Every structure is written in C-alpha cells, then in structure tokens.
Amino acid sequence: MKPLFTTTFLDTDNRRRLEDVFFDASMLPACPESGWSVRTTTLRGGLQEGVDVVEIDNGKLSFAVLPTRGMGILKAESGGTRFGWDSPVKDPVHPAFINLQERGGLGWLKGFNEWIVRCGLSSMGAPGPDVMVDNNGNPSEEFLNLHGRIANTPARKVGLEITPEEMILRGEVEETMLFGPSLRLTTEIRTAFGTGALTINDTVTNIGNQPCEHQLLYHVNYGKPLLEKGARFLAPLKKMAPRDARAAEGCKRFDRYGAPTAGFVEQVYFMELAAKPRSRETLAMLRNAAGNLASVLRFSIRDFPCFSLWKNTAAVEDGYVTGFEPGTAYPNARQFERGQGRVIELPGGASRSTSLTMETLDTRKAVQTVEKEIRDLQKRATPKLHSQPIPKFSGP
User: How far apart are CA 68 and CA 124, in angstroms?
Assistant: First the structure.
C-alpha cells in the first residue's frame, strides 16, 4: 500500500539526524485515522544521557522504542494497563556506560529494564568460554558475555512510514568487527491503528563473505499489574523440563505465579511448544489472576523452535518479573547449544527472517477466546513434563 508519509529520524551514512520531532493526526489530513501520534526525544542526565526514544501511539496501544539500545522496546500501555516491569535499573542506560564483561560476563544486566529486548546476534544465553578462530587462523579462547551484544548496540538507521492502515518503524543495527562476526539486523515494528497489537519483523544478514554463527532470542518481560499472585502461564506444550535443580523445585507449579517473595532465586523452564500443522504457528499467554487481562505472543516454531520461561518473583524492589523467551536456541552457553545442533550458521551474504506478534487483551471474553485456542492446539500433543533437567535441553 502506498505510504501517506515517510520520514528518516537517523541515517549515519548521510549524517542525518532529527531530534525532538512530534506529529499526529492533525498534521496528516490524508490519514483516515485519528488519535495517533509519534514523538522522538533524546534523554538527558545520568546513565540515560544520549539515549534516543521513539514513542508511538496508535490510538489504543502506545510503546517506546530505543534505537540507541538495539531497537528494543522499553515499555507499552494499552487501555490504561502497563506492559513492562519495574527493574532495579530505573532508566534506559546508554551502551557507553555498559561493560558487558563486568561481574564475570553479567554486565548486560546493568542495562536490563526493557519490556522487549533482543539477545544475540552472534551469541546469546549464559556467559562462558568458547573457542573461535583468531585473525591468524589459530584456535583462540574467548569469553562470551550474557545475551550477546545487540541490545547494547545503537542503530545506524531509523525511519517511519505511515499508511492508511498502520505505522511502521524501521531500524538497522550492525554487529560487526574486523576478523569477527559481520551481522546486520534490519527490523520493522508494525502496529495497526486502534489495535492492541504490534508485530516485529526481523531480518539478520551475514554481510561478510565467510560463514558466521547466529543466535537470536527475545526476552519479553512482564511485571505488575499483569504479573501477580495467581497469574498463569498458558501455552500448548509438547515437552517441558527445568533448566537446573533450582527450577526442578518448582516443577509442580511452573505455570503459576506467587506474590513477590524476598530472596527468591530465579527458575527457568525449557519447552517445546505444539503448533498448527501447516503454518507451524504457536502462542503463549500470560494471564492475570482474575482472567480479564493478558498478553499473548504469537510466532512460528520454524522461526523460534525453542521456548524458555523465566520466573523471578523476587521482592518488587529486586525485580518482580517473568520473561517469555522464544529463541533459535535455549539460553545456555553457546558451546553447549552448538553441541546440541542448535546454533545456526549463516553463509556469507545469507539472511534469516523471523516474525513475532504481541497482543494485549483487556476483556474476559478475549482472554477466554485465546485460552480455548491454546486448549485446541494442546489436543494435538500429549505433553511430556519432566521433573528433572534432561540432557537434550540443559544436561543432567
């Protein structure tokens, strides 16, 4: 469909940068919709100094994208309900203030407060050593940080397109180095006017000539008000196993949430989900205790064959949060995932595209409709629920 309006916020190739931009329906008479707006700003002060934000409101769903932090989405709101969480990290942190190797490779956590954050592109998951080939062609050990580099890499290009039906924010982020990975992320974040949904279409391209390993995982995080005592995780399961002995302690209630608990130690569950036979589409939902609010993730298991559920129901001050994590692999160390055949290798010039849709539900009827959809998909598979870690997912 022919766009009604296009603009470029950032283009490093042409030294173009627009700051403090605002426009809405009143400034675009050709657009049949009303109530929408787009605003850009650059944050000032503290660790957020220099972080660019693009705020998009489609008339029902509003969300804030962070081009400076790999095009992650800081937060969202729909119908007065917030989607996101309260991290001990209060502000979006500029990557210049992040040392990814801090605390044994856990430095990524010093900037972790987004609703949706990508992990990748060449590695993701737990920190740990790996063996690579150095610039002289010799094996060399390197230490990979938690969840890779893409979330702490600023975009090179950002632009917006508005059509009669939707708004499309596009961005380009590169994870490149000499004698190392040369990967480009090209993203589209699309949202139709007046809906409670957005879709992320990502393409990762090996812009180098040599093969390059590739991993990608989305950390989609929820706190209050959606996460609360009595909240439920629902998805059509084929297989589930705890990551470790700590997660095994909670296997009987892995799909249910408790109130904030001081001193709670995180639990992670690795899963394979059932999917529709042709499209291979599946879904996962977080539902509040009353059953009248929910968030739904939709994706294809062709894109993301692995799903992880992260539960961290600690005290609110320490980060009361749960994470839905569709990925190309499980968030173990890359060496382990390579041994399981779950690390993708992109030939030089090759691309891989994925799609992920988030829906917000704000009525009991809408929630019940999706619950039925999950039950119908579950009929296609008898779930195998393991009470202890299994070698296929994370070892004994």
Answer: 19
The 3-state DSSP class for residue 172 equals: strand
CATH number of 5-385: 2.70.98.10
The closest alpha carbon to 358, from 235, 190, 234, 113, belongs to 190
Q: Compute φ and ψ for 369, nearest 5 degrees.
A: -65, -45
DSSP 148: B
pLDDT in tens, 300-317: 999 999 999 999 999 999
Nearest in space to 337 (alpha carbons), one of 391, 385, 386 = 391
Averaged over 255-268, what is the pLDDT?
98
Q: For residues 14 and 70, what is the distance between their CA atoms, to the nearest angstrom?
A: 20
Domain boundaries, the chain: 5-385
Q: Write down the pTM of the prediction.
A: 0.97
Contacts of 88 (CB under 8 A, 6+ apart): 317, 318, 319
CB 132 within 8 A of CB 118: no
**Separation of alpha carbons 281 and 278, rounded Å:** 8
What is the distance between the alpha carbons of residues 268 and 240, in angstroms, rounded to a whole number?
A: 10
